[in-house]
Amino acid sequence: MPLHRFRSSAATGILAVLIVVIAACSSSSTPNGTPGPDSPVTQAITLTPAEGTGNVDPSAPVEASTSRGVLTAVTLTNDEGRTIDGTFTPDQTAWKPNVQLGYGRTYTLKAEGMGLTGSTGPVTSTFTTIQPANQTKVYLNTTGGEALAEGGTYGVGTVIVAHFDEDIADRAAAQKRLIVTTTPKVDGVWYWMDNRNAHWRPKDYYAPGTKISVAANIYGVQVGPGLFGQEDSKVNFVIGAAHVSIADDNTHMVDVFENGNLIRSMPTSMGRGGSETVAGRTITFWTQPGVYTVMDKANPVIMDSSTYGLPINSRLGYKEAIGWATRISTDGIYLHALDATIWAQGSQDVSHGCLNLSSENARWFFDYALPGDVVEVRNTGGAPLEVWQNGDWGMPWDEWVAGSAK
């Protein structure tokens, strides 16, 4: 006989499913009249969570389903009587809400169906979700503390920072929900700086054009006693051209490379070296060797020596507005304009630790640099740059991996 297509409405969809079920069960009785293996069985509707369940994770599955027949109506309402939108599967054998549920709420899930023996239900399940004692939000930032911009372009040394606004006791539980996906694929690891900050980077610099997606799926996740994730966060960005600058104290030059090609050489004067002891605290004046990345920039920035313990009125103290300043460390190392030291730039070191440039070069670098661009400082004195100073790339890979939550 000819076949006919049904229209894709809910009613015709239900009818189509039931016709298929009837056809499959059309010969189902044994000779003695007892039901055979294909006999129609009363439809069963399963609700998840089950009736009376408490302390439900609001991100856990919520579903109405049936293994025989179809669902004809499903509603999910909260304790304020608000209906939660949901979606049926194409064959109408399951239904799920379109959004995650809230904390500390009571929900009622109600479902009806139709099987070969007729309509079924309604069946209901009333359950409650967890009421956290405290919640934490996670921010996806650069090492400069700025939010990673959706669709933004960043440097090949970009380090992803997941910053929590509460101390995380269960780092492993939190880290499992911090997902980084890259195209092309790179192997990267989270390293915990402290109880609130985890940093992610690959073993080597990214290739230009790498696409990166970061998701912090922490909602509903317990990350400490009574502490749960407040909401999910996500961001997508791309890696730009490879900007790598080499500041070499042997030559007193900053050579800027783009995709491996030298595009600019800038005379510089770096940290003069030595130290001062002030109120029992030793302050050094080296530009520490290591691999830095661009954190942020400002024009001008107020530089105040008292912020790191050197009084303004002391022999080497200062407070002044400095132009075209590109920051590369957490403790205030910048590439910046200082025309007063042009006489020393390219020949000797006279700064307190920053990399002095002419106004022309500092402005060019300010305009050129992206957050995450690499600045390698070589052949200077002083202790090597530490990880807390924005020295993520200087840590040996095995030590970085060891700092990941297990």
Descriptive notes:
The strands form nine sheets. Strands 21-20-19-31-24 form a five-stranded mixed β-sheet, with no helix packed on it. With 406 residues, the protein is mainly beta. It is 9% helix and 37% strand. Strand 22 (275-278) and strand 23 form a beta hairpin. The chain starts with 9 loop residues before the first helix and ends with a helix. Residues 1-39 have low confidence and may be disordered. It has three domains: 10-128, Immunoglobulin-like, CATH 2.60.40; 134-240, Immunoglobulin-like; 243-394, L,D-transpeptidase catalytic domain-like (Beta Barrel).
Keywords:
L,D-transpeptidase catalytic domain-like, Immunoglobulin-like, 31 strands, single chain, elongated, 3 domains, 406 residues, 4-stranded antiparallel β-sheet, mainly beta
